[in-house]
Amino acid sequence: MSLLRLASYNLHKCRGLTGPHAPERNLAVIAALKPDIIALQEVDFRLGARPEALPRRLIREATGLVPADMTTTGENSLGWHGQTILMRPDLAEQAVLRRLPLPGLEPRGAVVLRLPRLTVIGVHLGLARSSRRAQLARITAQAARIADDNIVLMGDFNEWHDSRGLESLAGFRVIAPGPSYPAPMPRLRFDRIAISHHLDVLRHGVFTGADARDASDHLPIWAEIEQP
């Protein structure tokens, strides 16, 4: 059996809970987590030209992973709407990535990574529940059109409730491995993974190693699935 280790991590612009900017802490967390694919949120600073908060030049050396090849928000950005996906280099050779604009009160978008027999969608949903509902409805409708049956949707859902706002995910198994926010004393399950029902999920959890409580305001979450 071949396993695929998936993860999601909101980096909070690599500032820990309050600062300073220290991306090496986040890279150490990702390296210790050892994902095959990880969806990242808040990889860029928000103001001005939105330069990268997670330095692209350090990623492969520190983690062994590479960022998805895509058109980013700006010339000096790492991600699109602050999001990117890192993966093993051999997976990157087969990957096709597209950007999916989303409705809502704030500028938001999803990052869609297509691999042979698997589609991974990274999200950072809006702050208003009405926006989150509209965004998930758009994502699931588009996923049905552009993806096959093996779909994983993961990221910062910004939703504290276990069922409200997630109605569009009725066709998925939604995993909230545990409280992931705020990192020092987590109480809320903002970070989730939604997986096609027929994909086998073997294990999942919230990662607290490698000083993750100090590296961001979120803890990373992970799940191991049987590779389709």
Short précis:
With 228 residues, the chain is α+β, with helices and mostly antiparallel strands. The protein contains five helices and twelve strands. The radius of gyration is 16 Å and the shape is globular.
How is this fold's topology laid out?
Elements: E1 3-10, H1 23-33, E2 37-41, H2 56-63, E3 66-67, E4 84-87, H3 89-92, E5 96-102, E6 108-115, E7 118-124, H4 129-146, E8 151-156, E9 172-175, E10 191-196, E11 201-206, H5 212-215, E12 221-226
Parallel strand pairs: 1-2, 7-8
Antiparallel strand pairs: 1-12, 2-4, 3-4, 5-6, 6-7, 8-10, 9-10, 11-12
Helix pairs in contact: 1-2
Describe, in plain words, how this protein is organized in 3D.
The protein is of the alpha+beta class and 228 residues long. The protein contains five helices and twelve strands. The chain has helices at residues 23-33, 56-63, 89-92, 129-146, 212-215; strands spanning 3-10, 37-41, 66-67, 84-87, 96-102, 108-115, 118-124, 151-156, 172-175, 191-196, 201-206, 221-226. The protein has a six-stranded mixed beta sheet with strand order 3-4-2-1-12-11. The protein has a six-stranded mixed beta sheet with strand order 5-6-7-8-10-9, with helices on one face. Strand 1, helix 1 and strand 2 form a beta-alpha-beta unit. Helix 1 (23-33) packs parallel to helix 2. The radius of gyration is 16 Å and the shape is globular. The mean pLDDT is 94. GO terms for molecular function: endonuclease activity. Residues 7-218 form the Endonuclease/exonuclease/phosphatase domain.
